[in-house]
Amino acid sequence: MPEFVLTFACPDRTGLVYAVTSWLFERGCNILDSDQFGDPYSGRFFMRVHFSGDQEVAALRQDFVPVAEAHRMSWEIWPLEVRPRVLVMVSRLDHCLADLLYRTRLGELPIDIALIASNHRDAYPLAAAEDIDFLHLPVDGGSKAAQEAKLLEAIAERNVDLVVLARYMQILTERVCEALPGRIINIHHSFLPSFKGARPYHQAHQKGVKLIGATAHYVTPVLDEGPIIEQGGARVDQRNSPAEIAAVGRDLERIVLAKAVRYHAEHRILRNGERTVVFR
């Protein structure tokens, strides 16, 4: 049978799980796994249900409307057979891009990479090797607005669902962020908001940092302040050179970004104000 994911958030109250599971039972659907979270601070309830059923997604969505309206839910039902179409943006550092391509080829990431875009040509060989279109968008002082217009056009033409900034070292303008709310994921080379800008691991070495990290988050118009999806960390000490710290950091970036992309693709992330609820 086809498989689906139902996600919803609503004011917390008794009977929510019963309302959803009885609705699924009445339609002959089988729950494969589910998870839930009640936030005592916001007073909201979050749930993800993975189920199978012999129905079309359009019919399921239409049938669920009365349940959603009765409980003031923000919700969606996703068919798992439909994989999100992804645009990966990268600059010169291609370790995250290479990792995403490899995991996608192995089937570890349920995504289709529709396009790779960059402000440099360094990543073109990786795109060509995977037979993926490559969009070169060089950015100088006066070209950013025009290049972002081309970027948004390419996203619309290819029906891109998600943009992944895989160490893309340009700041997206408010125009792009507002056009794609909750659809852009960035990997940051530290525990936010520390060590912004160039050579972050050299900054960490100079400060004698003992714990380095990587943070994946949704992009908002406020730089590096979007809701955090996933983080990872590793210990370092005085014996580690800047190059060694950078190597550890690259490994963290790959792992954390891949997890964040998978969580998004599998509909495991729900927004909770400025935070996220992640069902792993």
Give a description of the structure.
With 280 residues, the protein is an alpha/beta fold. Helix content is 34%, strand content 30%. It is built from eight helices and 13 strands. It has helices at residues 16-26, 57-70, 95-106, 124-129, 144-157, 174-179, 200-206, 242-265, and strands spanning 3-11, 30-39, 44-52, 74-79, 85-90, 112-118, 134-136, 162-165, 184-188, 211-218, 228-235, 269-272, 275-278. The strands form three sheets. A seven-stranded mixed sheet has the order 7-6-5-8-9-10-11. Strands 2-3-1-4 form a four-stranded antiparallel sheet, with helices on one face. Strand 6, helix 4 (124-129) and strand 7 (134-136) form a beta-alpha-beta unit. The two termini are 23 Å apart. The mean pLDDT is 94.
SSE order: EHEEHEEHEHEHEHEHEEHEE
Gyration radius (Cα, Å) is 20 Å
Q: What is the terminal separation in angstroms?
A: 23 Å
Q: Which class best fits the helix and strand makeup? A: alpha/beta
Query: What is the beta-strand fraction?
Result: 25-35%
Helix content: 25-40%
Give the overall shape.
globular
Give the beta-strand count.
13
SSE layout:
Blueprint: E1 3-11, H1 16-26, E2 30-39, E3 44-52, H2 57-70, E4 74-79, E5 85-90, H3 95-106, E6 112-118, H4 124-129, E7 134-136, H5 144-157, E8 162-165, H6 174-179, E9 184-188, H7 200-206, E10 211-218, E11 228-235, H8 242-265, E12 269-272, E13 275-278
Parallel strand pairs: 5-6, 5-8, 6-7, 8-9
Antiparallel strand pairs: 1-3, 1-4, 2-3, 9-10, 10-11, 12-13
Helix pairs in contact: 3-8, 7-8
